[in-house]
Amino acid sequence: MYSDKGWSGKNIDRPQFTQLLTDLKSGVINKIIVYKLDRISRSLYDFSGLVKIFQKYSVEFVSTVETFDTSTPVGRAMLGIIMVFAELERENILMRVKDNYYARGKKGMFLGGPPIYGFDKTPAVVDGVKTSMLIPNEKMEIVRYMYKAYSEGNTSLGDIVRELNARGVLSPNNTPWDSCKISRLLRSPTYVMADIEVYHYFKNKGCTITSPVDEFTGEKGCFVYGKRPGNERKYADVKNHFMTLGLHDGVIPPELWLVVQRKLDSNEQIKRGKTGFHSWLTGLIKCAKCGYALKVYQKNYFYCSGKSNHNLCSGFEQHPAIAEVEESVKAQLVARFEEIKDVIIEENRVPVDPKVNMLKISLEEINQKIENLVKHMSQTSEVVSSLIVGELEKLAAERTEIEAEIEEYNRRNKAKIPYDEIIPLLNEFDDMPVESRHVIASQFINRINLSENEIQIEWKF
Q1: Would the pLDDT of 252 be above 90?
Q2: CB–CB of 86/42 below 8 Å?
Q3: Which of the residues 20, 112, 229, 358 could staple to 2 if both were Cys, CB 3.0 to 4.6 A apart?
Q4: Is-above-0.70 flag for pTM?
Q5: CATH number at residue 192
Q6: pLDDT reading at 106 higher than 90
């Protein structure tokens, strides 16, 4: 008697079943009898392999419920037919589980597992279905600290790790923190008070957003879910995933959450291109002749990729020295600060006015209407197309008005970082890691065009 209680028939790597195969190969078994076919396997592929083993060792197979055995031709034929339906049943079960998972996700329900750090679960009912809702606990103050600390200038993930571990604060599994754990926590959309800017952030990353755009009012947190490769970290790539607003309230302001995401995005770009990343100008500096990126050559020089990779440019007579270019750009940075005294940063921390958020929601709705109308133009008659054109003109006019209102608001409410807060960063600039210098430079510089005799900087403001 071989019995694997609590094990599914879809898995043939079961303790007692493994013992059965061992005994079978040793020659002590002549016939295997099961109560029902799916007790041995639900996979047609697995079972076909088992049948070959049975045949190799001259072992007969009998199922009592299906009333057949492999010692007869009819039994072997019936066996194949039944296994097809067993496999179909398993796939239907998996499909139902998957459909239920995504249906719950679209309603903003908690999708199972332990709650993320800083939240507890509380029972809730949505459309008559029992589920759970997240509520903040005392650890949420640690989460707020992480977001605030990482958003500041040159603070690294390692700095936060060292601070928390020194304070004896443990991670969710009661072990010390590391950079990966903190990065994953900071990436989580569960914490953010999702507004229209968060909506656009995920939309631009290829996420399918299931909640209506007019619900992104800066109150609710959200969930991102979908299938990903087993070796890929959660939130590493949300393309082809789904994002929906949750039932719970967010806790991290959207402007702070987005500052952290952009810094993490910048770090990810650095990691992906780490080979040859010997200059904080990498990614910013271009050839003034052809516009292609300048790459690092022998760690100390720049070369034109337009010449080396595409043969579209004459390049430089002599490779520009990285140290000299960096020093010149840094000098222009300092001069720029001296000119404007107060530096305006686009990614400001000023809380978004609810009225402006609603304007941006209206703008997105208009853009969606325009997109839908344009799609239908080629599929309609000439008369209907002319009506669509008229509607497009009205929508375009509305869009222009809304964009003007938003631009006026931004002009009046730009956040400013005082000059005396910039100076310490510049004083420490040369001692910072290359990645940190790159993050700071990319906040202010849009592009650097390098020619034989000139360095031209295109500023973001």
Answers
A1: yes
A2: yes
A3: 20
A4: no
A5: 3.90.1750
A6: no
